[in-house]
Amino acid sequence: MADTEPQAWYLNSKFPVFWPQCEALTLPEDDFEAYLQRIQERGLENNLNKTDVEGTHGPGDADDDTFTLVSEQPSTTADVRLVLGSMDMCEATENEESAQDGPSSSQDAFMAGLVSHGEPREVDMSHFTMDGKMLTENADFAYRSTNSALVDLFFELEDVVSGPRLLELLNAAWTEDPLATLKLIFNARSIHIGKSSRHTFYRCAGWLATYHPLTLVANLQWLSRPVIEKKVSTKDDKEDSDTEVIEDESDPARFDVRHGVAHGYWKDLLNILALSANGHLTVLSTPRDILNIENQTAGPVRSKEDTREEQTRRHDDAVQAFTSNPTHHALHLKTARLFASQLKTDLALLDNPSDAPKTATISLCAKWAPSPQRFHDKHTTIATSIAEILFPPASFPPFLIPTRETYLRHARESYRRLLTRLRARLDIVERPLTKRAYGDIQYPSVPSLAMRAYAPLFAERDGDRFGEYLAAVKAGTKQISGAVLMPSVLVRDALAAGKRSAGVRSHKKARAFDHGRRVRRGGRRGVGLGRNNNTVLETKARELRDRTLDAQWDTLVRRVKDSGTLESCIAICDVSGSMTYPTFADGTAPIHTAIGLSLLMAEVVAPPFGGAFVTFSARPTVEKVDLTGTLGEKVAAMERSEWGMNTDLVAVFEKLILPMAVENKLTQEQMVKRLFVFSDMQFDAAERGDRWATSFERIEKEYMAAG
């Protein structure tokens, strides 16, 4: 009878799920670390005859706990040197050819002189003392380097830094201080206290994977653990807090903060693994090539055979990487163990909440855990390894699992059901959205990025409830998430909303005029009235979106204020022509960042310097901001300020602050202590005799002279 029963759908699926068995998947932590050390040494032994190429190792390879598979991952440094070397050779060849093509006799001297007449002449710089200085793009003088590899790395660790330059910076910084370099790498990712740059962090992770893989593997856990306080704790807060003391020094949970947040999120682990599986976890690679962060236009529909062939190829590539690349092998095992460990903890809390500490809450691990047959599972088969830890063979009757592949399919299905239970408990906003059950959405628990993405939908489909919620937020009885949104993103949205409103107002005039003509001509009055009704709904939805922006901005301001205080500070905001480009992946430009950060400083700085900013131009002025207005009104007011189209930093000090201080006889205690310059460009050239001094040196001299 049992033989005639149809098999479960997941047993008949063509999706490849098989994965090589590895005992290290479930080893105790100490044994697991020893296992990683063994495969490190084995990797080096297997490739000793291939590691004598210059540049195959990063800094500190003599006694380092790292390994590099030269056969699998080519020498990054060597590749860069080859490219740079070939560029130098090409340039030398071009110079030789142009020298040969130059004037060959005195008969060409006249034409040569005529052609070169009026060209800028080379100035003999030998009598000037440069002292490590350089000309900026705007011809001002600045120091070429900070003389600290760590400071250089922190300053240049942005999305725009090139791969070769990032490699150079990381090598130099690690030589200076490995621990500080590692902290700077995580600061690049840190959403709440760092630069929140995923792609820059992934490229740095690629550098660690190449030169210090065990360091990368050992620190993956800090991407998802709640180790950052949302609010700076006072002495009373610490005394009143209900904390759980963890005695085990090997347990990373001892660093967790109650209601804390993480540097990254669980999906970072999966993204790093997917990059590694595809050979893109290097400092020179572009993560977007694999991760497809932006929505892409759908291509032609593929046949089932083509899709199945692609799935098989990806699966085979993942197995090959796991069995032959020690770095990827370690990353895969560690990622699976981290997910499985947290899911076990969350499941126990779900099933037996009374046994857990009263401060314990279910994490967001299940939300970001890899769903079977979705993107990360397709590229890495990581769902199989997580399922194998959570549901070992002993979890099933022996007759159900005659083969390893059958067992893995049962384990994956059990894992899928576990995710369904935990995600239902988390009340993820996408669940009621897919069911169109808008009345079930709990708006206070919607994350900030989801709120930004879905606010127009909430306003359109659940306008009354959403409006009541926003009113409660304004009254202070409910909260809205927005602390992780960048000021630049909110400013861009506010500017876009303002432009849409202006466009709608013009469009409404045209509609009214057109409707009046139809009424006078005896036209279809019902059509006009219907359009007016639609306009009312559009206006209401637009107002709700604007109120959402205001609420999220207020949340961001409160978060910054809760993190500490700023006194005697003022912002210098650059909105010169260069600030309108480039456009970044999130749709913002440098001008949005400058306005956003300047406005944020105006909001949080204590009086008398709060509520103001300085324009960046040849004739700088101090502009006041009405902090009682909406975000759109404040941004629009800043945009209407008198802006110049250049970046004359010296003018701010020499033509604005110093004359004002001298005229009003201000003391040093009354002077502003710190100025924050928000600009993407270097400063303009000096127009005075002390040309070879930096802007700071010239300003310092004048202020000292004035006392």
From TrEMBL:
InterPro entries in the cross-refs: DUF2828 (IPR058580), DUF7788 (IPR056690), UCP015417_vWA (IPR011205)
Species name: Coniochaeta hoffmannii
Domain of life according to the entry: Eukaryota
Every DUF2828 domain range: 136-566
PANTHER family: OS06G0652100 PROTEIN, TROVE DOMAIN-CONTAINING PROTEIN
Protein name: D-lactate dehydrogenase
Domain DUF7788 intervals: 568-707
Alphabetical list of Pfam families matching this protein: DUF2828, DUF7788
